[in-house]
Amino acid sequence: EVQLLESGGGLVQPGGSxxxxxxxxxxxxxxxxxxxxxxxxxxxxxxxxxxxxxxxTTHYADSVKGRFTISRDNSKSTLYLQMDSLxxxxxxxxxxxxxxxxxxxxxxxxxxxxxxxxxxx
Amino acid sequence: DIQMxxxxxxxxxxxxxRVTITCRASQSISGxxxxxxxxxxxxxxxxxxxxxxxxxxxPSRFSGSGSGSATEFTLTISSLQPDDVASYYCQxxxxxxxxxxxxxxxxx
Lengths: 121, 108
Prior knowledge:
heterodimer; A: 121 residues; mainly beta; seven-stranded mixed beta sheet; four-stranded antiparallel beta sheet; 11 strands; B: 108 residues; six-stranded mixed beta sheet; 10 strands; globular
C-alpha cells in the first residue's frame, strides 16, 4: 500500500524556520516526482513545489520562491521542505503528494495526511 | 500563470440529483486537468485525470468532460450520494505553476 507520512509541523514565530519531512513507503520513491501542496485554514489548495526523480530539477510557487527549498533523499525514501523566513500567510496544512510520473508534470495520485504549520508570535 | 475558475463555490442538492461542477482555464491546457475530492478533515483524493479518465476504484457515477483545446471542463455526479459530501477541486497540469481552482463545496 502506498503511504506518505508527513512530520515536522508546529508553531513557529514569524521570520523563523521549519523543516518538514515526508516518509514514503509502498512504492519505488526514486521513480516518481514529489510535490508539496498546502491549504490555509478554511481555504483552498495551493501548489507549493515539486522535485523530480533525481532531485536536481525543482519548481516553486512564486509565493515561496527564495524562502522554501524542496529536496529528497532517495536512499531514505524521504521528501523534505525547508521553510525559511516564515510569514503568517504561510500558516497552513502542508501535504506531500506523489505524482503519477517522474519526468514531466502530472497529476497527484497519492497524498499524505498533512502536517500543520502555524506561524504566529 | 494559468488561472482556474470553478463554479459554483457551493452547491446544495438532494440525494439522487445530477450535479455538475464547472472549471474554466484562462487559456488552453490541452486536456491536462485533474479533479480531486476532499472530505472534511481529510487529504484530497484523485478522482479523474486527463479531464475524463476515472481513477481505479472511483464510483462510475463520477465523470469528467472537456478535452483538447477546450478551456471549460466539467465534473458530473450522475446520482448524488451522502458519501459525496465533500469539496471538489480542479487542477491543471499543463505548465508551471499547476494551479488549483478555488473549490466547490457539495452539500446535501
